[in-house]
Amino acid sequence: MAIATVNPATGEELKRFEALDREQIDEKIERAVGAFRGWRETPVQERCRLMARAAEVLEERAEEFGRLITTEMGKPLAAAVAEVRKSARGCRYYAQNAARFLADEEVELEGARAFVRYQPLGPVLAVMPWNFPFWQVFRFAAPALTAGNVGLLKHASNVPQSALAIEEVFRQAGFPEGVFQTLLIGASQVRDVISDPRVRAATLTGSTPAGRDVGGEAGRNIKPSVLELGGSDPFIVMPSADLDRALDTAVTSRTLNNGQSCINAKRIIVHRQIAEEFTRRFVEKMASLKVGDPMDETTDMGPLAMPSILEGVDEQVRRSVEAGAKVLTGGKPLDGPGYFYPPTVLAEIPEGAPAREEEIFGPVASLFTARDIDEAIRLANETPFGLGSSAWTNDPEEQERFVDEIEAGMVYINRLVESTPEVPFGGVKSSGYGRELSHFGIREFVNVKTVWIDASGGERGRGVE
After folding, report:
1. Strand-pair partners of 154
2. Helix, strand, or coil here: 435?
3. Is 228 exposed, middle or buried (0-12, 13-18, 19+ CB in 10 A)?
4. Most CB atoms closer than 10 Å: which of 42, 257, 291, 433?
5. Are the beta carbons of 444 and 224 closer than 8 angstroms?
6. Structural domains in the chain (count)
7. pLDDT value at position 94?
8. Residue 23 lies in a domain
9. Do 268 and 134 have their domain in common?
10. Rounded to the nearest 10 degrees, what angle do helices 135-146 and 77-102 cross at?
11. 228 is annotated as an active-site residue
């Protein structure tokens, strides 16, 4: 895939870049190693000050960067600007909390002083996707850099200008040269970077197959990795729910980011008592959304990011219909230039159909009816994914069952699933491992060092692990 900016609303290529060669990659890795020597010794308070400055840069240039995001991947402009401001919020969160998260932790022991110290690992490679081209980078970079690591970014090949802009943010904020660098490289070059002994860890947000490649290569080289992979999130609605709020949130969640988010509500599971009304109103709301120019403030949903995404979504819908699924609205790409696909609702989806078993990375909602809470939970858990989930009920016993029994890294009750700096983000099963954000995120790429200073002079426990 070419490293190029192609406007998904028009299909026009705007700018193309040459991939770095092996010598250029080597120079950047060596620069990262040199930067790490000084950055790890920089007091955490200074690292936090610079991260707070990065937040200011993002806020000052939010409109500019928002237009760049929309141009490269097609989300509505208001959402793109909001993403930049959310990235600023993430930077500010770690600027305010990193020192506390990284402070030594004392352990009470008789006759000794023991504590845990958190120390950075070194250069970390981040392989990041195009769907949230700023936020997903900053939710890695803000904790990793304040912890004292340095970052190497391999961004998606269709958002190269966003990748370079993020490097510019850190430069403008005053970070030392080499602490954060963008690598304009193709996917085939990632393996060599991970296997380079100077690179100490890797993180990826992307597809499950990409996760196998990155996680596998990191594992072969005995390096830690964090994988945030795909999702086919359930959105369960029970009879006691506030139906108006549940409906509005279901539509918002499924079409957020033009339907291209790992935590979109992809499988809508509705109790049979309210299924008829919910379905009618949900289809009406989905069909009423305005699809068009993402720079137009009246647009609800822009194009898909790439022709391959459009073709993949169309194929999954066609295969689902061939298997017996029923199209309630949408279902075919829109005519004209650009990569537009309408909000789509499928129902009566049989086992084995893509809309039931695969992640559809576009604005396609799969509707299911559940007889009771047991069937709702079974449907929620029947996919190989386990990232986010949303359940709508005002019954405390049902809430507890969903919290306890849904197989996912995140369960949101009566709320849209979202990533936010204050709580950990990540999944289970084929949705990956490790956690981003909160204090868990900043401790993923550190040496959790045990320190024991014996004051007794004894030999307690010698020879026993």
Report:
1. 127
2. coil
3. buried
4. 257
5. yes
6. 2
7. 98
8. yes
9. no
10. 20
11. yes
Place of tokens 């070194």: 122
Distances (CA, A) of 377 to 269, 352, 389: 9, 19, 11
Residue 462 lies in a domain: no
What are the two backbone dihedrals, phi and then psi, of residue 367, each rounded to the nearest 5 degrees? -100, 135
With a threshold of 0.90, does the pTM exceed it? yes
Based on the fold, state whether residues 310 and 201 are members of the same structural domain.
Answer: no
Cα separation, 339 vs 373, in Å, equals 38
Length of the chain in terms of residues written: 465
Domain range for 75 is 3-229+431-451
Q: What CATH number does the domain containing 93 carry?
A: 3.40.605.10
Q: Encode 157-209 in three state secondary structure.
A: CCCHHHHHHHHHHHHHHCCCCCCEEECCCCHHHHHHHHHCCCCCEEEEECCHH
Are 212 and 301 in the same domain?
no
CATH assignment of the domain containing 351 = 3.40.309.10
Token pair in block for residue 458: 């004894």
In a domain, 193, yes or no: yes
Q: Which amino acid is at 364?
A: V
Q: Which of 48, 72, 91, 262 is catalytic?
A: 262
Is residue 419 assigned to a domain? no
Same domain membership, residue 154 and residue 33? yes
Strand ranges in 74-194 using DSSP code E only, listed in sequence order: 105-109, 112-120, 123-127, 150-154, 180-182
Give the pLDDT confidence score for residue 461 in this predicted structure.
53
Residue 235's region, left for phi above 0, alpha for psi from -120 to 50, else beta, is beta
Based on the residue annotation, tell me whether 91 is a catalytic residue of this protein: no
Q: Are 194 and 125 in contact (CB under 8 A)?
A: yes
Active-site hit among 72, 228, 398, 444: 228
Q: Label residues 443-461 b or e (16+ Cβ within 10 Å = b).
A: ebbbeeeeeeeeeeeeeee
Q: For 236-292, how does the pLDDT look when each residue is reduced to its tens digit (9 = 90+)? A: 999 999 999 999 999 999 999 999 999 999 999 999 999 999 999 999 999 999 999
Element (H, E) at 271: strand 265-271
